[in-house]
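ugh finaly. both done.
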Amino acid sequence: MATMGELPSDLLYCIILLLVQSPGGVADFARMVSVCRKFRLFTQKKHILSLVSFDMKLEFKNFIQYQHINSLLVKCSEAGNIAAQFLLGKVILVSSSQLFLGEWQKAEFHPCDSATLGELRCILATNDPGHDYKVGSFMAYFLPEQVHNSEVSRRRLVHYQLVKVFLLNGSLHDLAEMAVFIKCYIKFFTSVTEEDDPLLATVNDMILHADTIMKSEKALMELSSLRAGCERCSNAIRNCINHRDIHIAKFRGLAMRFFETNWG
């Protein structure tokens, strides 16, 4: 009986194309390319990489596993895979926060309240004493000066391009979950420390609107469970929808303005 690796290349291509677009696409693809050289050749095909599904949650306790510049996550991002860029944007936010946490721990004065510092220590705890160096090497790959001076043929991405994808495509839950990392990211790359600085005020404003929208959506769900024929409830639902849409538009505008102001 023929093995899968012995199938005609065209048929194998179709099978892998279906595989990478399944819910477990990236995990299944990673396992497949790790066992056969013929399968690994598909990691060089941009069309395949651009379609790999990244329907997965970034687990902070295991975030170290994402910090590899030769990973499928980075390769798929460079192939134009928006789902991969979205996840990599979150990895960039966490990684910059890890480096900033290292700076805080060395300083006598922490440019951060103790609660935030404690939260970061808890989330980003690692037993690897050399991890800061590894994170620094990973982040250097996405610095503008490294990207622009690179002779690598594949498309390199700058850190702010990836974070921008996350901010524009993330759900309100994503925004709230990553709020502390967004603020640390801005402080790390802009040297801003004061919470009332316009840059951080903008992010705080975005986070505030996200919280408002989530509360509105919760109210909308509660109202939707009531009698459909109730005119009073229908008016309240419409008001919630309008309120939500207004704040979503404002958040997107703030995100765009922030990146245009700081990185063009």
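ok and the 2nd:
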Amino acid sequence: MATQSAGARRIVSAAVSGFAAITRAVTAPGTRHHRRAMLTEQHRLHFDLLCKAMSDPALAAVLDTYEAEIPLEKQRQFLFANALYTNALYFHRIGALTRAELFGHLRVICQNEIFQEYWAATQHHRKSLPDTSEEAELGRMMDDLIREQADADSDEWWVVGEPPDEPS
């Protein structure tokens, strides 16, 4: 009788383990879908807030955390530059761009002098990021890219910099 009980327990245990594995496999895509939906909503809200700030000087003043005096028109341009950068990051985060594709997209964006000014003016903002965070890594990638483009001897900006390897 004890053998039958042990055998039954092994069968039940195997069934429970199998059910748990199936449950994880079935819910994991749902979790990714939920995360993507949350990122999409957060991105939409962020963009809406930036649009309001770009159209209303009183709201733009709330986002004026620059270390130097920035004229209102330039602040609005910086907010738009932030929207472009954030949009590229969003596409990377949802898996629509690989890191190398993000690099290529950012390579184009940082050709613009206003974007370069925005990036320099917000350098102190990125200092609060944990060094190991993906956002800090991507910020360093942008720093390197802008520096490499400034140091390049060629006008062929599209070949400057080495696209990063995908993290494992």
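summary for the 2nd one i guess: The radius of gyration is 24 Å.
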